[in-house]
Q: What sequence folds into this?
């Protein structure tokens, strides 16, 4: 299950691809929603590790526009609930993630991203 | 007593391609259980297991910490292992997030100094180097144990990334055997990366003398 939290932590790692290699762009994705237990502390702890813009963008690509474009200063329960849903309940089951820079395609199959590179792409 | 994760969904066919939990796995679980209090009070948010195989260890960690308290990322170079990890997460009602990938490479850029709990039960068995190279290349079950000279061929590559990944309070738990030269590993991690270490537990299992080592800042 590629959740948006996972997507927010993956970058293209092809040899020499070091700029504009994050975030990866979704391509032809299929989505599944799965309810997850809401833990406000956990979501709050994830905040400093997120790239907000990349998250908002990824959410839009999968049809969710509930997040504000800028990271809110006050994270009340309402914001945390929305974040919880976007980060942890939207699952990408099929499709691909494409690097904006080198165009490398990382497939997603049965909910698992394949980030392996071939020998000549490894740095 | 923390129950061992339910692996009843995995079959003989799965274990043709994926390492079946064995003495080293169970010692890893025992080691983590000894750390229960510390693991819980440190309130980790991001956990990462390298080479998750069946997913048994991460599922166990999740049952220690609570399944909604942290992210459980699990990489494996073997796609069959990643599928088993996902299934083990489902079976144990734990959201494990498997990624097919080599060590932590796709996560290194974004997880700099962010990982609170890092786990690795590496291919530690001494073999010849070609065997270990080939095993990683074909990404099959042999890659779960063939470790090259001193059994450190794969571990050595990953040890270079540990300090970069660990958060301020992060802990790295590593499985090793005596032939890996444990005093040497600990000394190198201290002098090259400033990471201190302690042996959590050890056990003789047949020909293997297994250790669980914890590294931290």
A:
């Amino acid at each position: 299950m590629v959740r948006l939290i996972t997507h927010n932590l993956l970058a293209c790692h092809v040899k020499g691809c070091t700029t504009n290699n994050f975030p990866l762009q979704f391509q032809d994705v299929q989505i599944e929603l799965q309810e997850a237990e809401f833990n406000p502390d956990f979501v709050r702890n994830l905040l400093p590790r997120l790239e907000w813009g990349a998250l908002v963008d990824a959410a839009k690509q999968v049809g969710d526009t509930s997040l504000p474009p800028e990271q809110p200063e006050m994270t009340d329960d309402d914001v945390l609930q929305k974040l919880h849903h976007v980060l942890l309940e939207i699952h990408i089951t099929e499709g691909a993630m494409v690097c904006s820079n080198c165009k490398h395609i990382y497939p997603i199959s049965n909910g698992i991203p394949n980030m392996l590179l071939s020998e000549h792409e490894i740095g | 007593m923390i129950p061992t994760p339910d692996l009843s969904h995995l079959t003989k066919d799965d274990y043709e391609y994926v390492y079946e939990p064995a003495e080293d796995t169970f010692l890893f679980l025992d080691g983590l259980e000894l750390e229960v209090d510390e693991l819980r009070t440190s309130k980790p948010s991001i956990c990462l297991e390298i080479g998750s195989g069946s997913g048994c260890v991460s599922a166990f960690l999740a049952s220690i910490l609570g399944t909604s308290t942290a992210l459980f990322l699990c990489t494996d170079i073997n796609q069959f292992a990643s599928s088993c990890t996902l299934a083990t997460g489902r079976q144990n009602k734990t959201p494990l997030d498997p990624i097919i990938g080599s060590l932590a490479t796709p996560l290194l850029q974004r997880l700099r100094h962010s990982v609170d709990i890092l786990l690795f039960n590496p291919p530690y068995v001494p073999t010849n180097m070609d065997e270990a190279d080939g095993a990683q290349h074909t990404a099959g079950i042999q890659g779960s144990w063939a470790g090259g000279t001193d059994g450190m061929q794969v571990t050595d590559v990953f040890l270079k990334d540990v300090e970069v990944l660990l958060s301020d309070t992060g802990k790295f738990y590593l499985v090793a055997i005596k032939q890996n030269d444990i005093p040497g590993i600990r000394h190198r991690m201290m002098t090259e990366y400033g990471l201190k270490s302690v042996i959590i537990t050890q056990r003789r299992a047949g020909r293997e003398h297994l250790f669980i080592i914890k590294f931290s800042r």
